[in-house]
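Many introductory courses stop at the sequence. We go one step further.
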Amino acid sequence: MEFPRSLRPLSVGLALALLAACLAVGVARGAQTMHPGRARASVGSLRSLADHYRVVTWDYQRAAKVGRTPTSFSYRRSTDRAYLRWTIDAWTRHAYIARRQALAVLHHKLAVSLPTAPALRAPLYQRVVYSKRLALRLRKIYPGRVTRTFASARAATDRATLRLWQVRSAQGALAVALHGARTAPQQQVSGWLSQAFLCIHRYEGAWTSNTGNGYYGGLQMDDRFMRRYGAAYVQRWGTADNWPSWAQIAAAARAHASGRGFTPWPNTARACGLI
């Protein structure tokens, strides 16, 4: 249909107005899509999130035996959303660094294998998976078992689930640092013997090796060997591929002290010049 010439300016104006309105609605919806959580986050929830990452940071720092990051707790009194979000970002970075420090200390003391951390700004699902894997791995070290209820825990939302496992992994690192390290008997194995088994390990396999052939860990122990020389470790962690390296060496040292020497590893011990 063709508008009369006298109405054409009016129709063009109406079309432009409708177009502008549609663009405005689109921009508003786009902004809500980009930052849906920020638009709805209350001051109280922002303060709680800052507290969450502060607690996680301090737990990891205690596990690493480093000084706590100081705070005046000013965010608890602030209503400035921009400042609260800045505080959350700052404590998130502190927690990331503190976790790396704590896990490095545990790895050095106990020679345990721990999952590799994703990047600081990794997708949410990656951070959830990592935090859960880390918490479960640490709990297997101390207190030594993981219940089905503990392993299946979830919160109401994915972000809440992330915070749940972040807290559990930080608490787990602290528990291992305080209690798990006390069970490590590195001093009971002499230096030369420890080095001998480290050489054998290099020929046998990874400390976490489980190829399905009935032999486990870095010294390839079978079920009978594990239960005879590492019964307490079997009860705590299961098969040797789940033991920290010091526990595998300690069990091997018991076999050596019993009179068996290096005979359980005839080929690799020969390659190391031990027999």
